[in-house]
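We close this part of the discussion by returning to an individual protein. Part of our work consisted of pairing the sequence of a single chain with a tokenised description of its backbone. No coordinates are needed to read the tokens, only the vocabulary itself. The amino acid sequence and the backbone structure tokens for this protein are reproduced below:
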Amino acid sequence: MKVDNKDMLLYLVTDRTWLRDKTLSEIVELVIENGATFIQLREKDMEHNRFRELAIEVKKITDRYKIPFVINDDIDVAIEVNADGVHIGQDDISLIRAREILGKDKIIGVSVGNVDEAIKAEREGADYLGVGAIFSTTSKSDAIDVGIRELKEITKAVDIPVVAIGGINENNIQQLRGSGVDGIAVISAILAKEDIAKATRDLFKLSKEVLYEGGNI
């Protein structure tokens, strides 16, 4: 599976902090049913076997809905569960090495924070870029704010899909209008809401309106 621009529209990064009375698998299915177009499983402190089991559970759902599914950082788990790919940061395994391990048919997304990183990632074979943090966020304490101006420069500099991440929600998404991004990646803007289904539907609609000028994709 390779990514298309439309796959980026509403990209959910998981976070078990917000599960409350539902399992992660139930949450993933709920957000997909209500508009999520891409799922990234992100677990920084989970024991390997449990992470693998969780990834298997989530992949059953993403496979059923034919939604792209990547693992954050952990290439071993991605291989073991046959995920669609991985998402890596600047301090994780190198993109070139990740491609050598995963092969040409897997998705590799890369987090970037400036034009130079974006151009380098595209040149080395990234399938898409995650750019952020666009706004201040509590989900990732070490995130560095990128800002709208830099985001626009990045989208102009590359030809692969770009997803904006970091503090994006229904109140500030309008600031991304005209930025050239293909979608938004969110955590708390969906998962922290009391009504997750409605939050997903609302963001899906807003993403189409703001990023694709009228909702045509």
